[in-house]
Amino acid sequence: MMACSLVRCPVLITVTLAGISAGTARADGLTLTAQSGGQYDYGIQLDPNHGLVILAGDQITLTGLFGVTSAGVLAGLSFAYSTIITTPTSVTIGATTPFVLDPVPVSQTISALHVTSSASTSGLVDYEFQTGSEGTVSGTVLGPAGTVPEPGGLTGPRQY
What we know:
The chain is mostly beta strands. The protein is built from two helices and eleven strands, in the order H-E-E-E-E-E-E-E-E-E-E-E-H. About 10% of the residues lie in helices and about 50% in strands.
């Protein structure tokens, strides 16, 4: 085994700690955690040893949706996010309270938001969220992207 000199060991330790710190604040993405009918729940997925820093004003946005009727913040982030903006094609929640989630040695999913839609099928939708630690994280996730079912009266037999 190689012996440390007084000059070399502190440099190696500093470089190692800097490498660990740089990798521990990474948010990996948004994931679909539950789906039933037109109900979709999403969470922020963090890999092992990754933490999260959220600043006031940071947002989570889903776009390319179809038939959105409502949205809300789930319990995992309800202490920090309260602003909710919905349109039929997008949902945005905004952080009002900053927080830091320290890294843990296992993968974790933090429940984030719930979307209700009248869409009858799912497809890929776009997401984007800001973090104080990583900047903007974006990608695609399964969501309500299909068509709205026809009302029963329009698809049934004609009445004469």
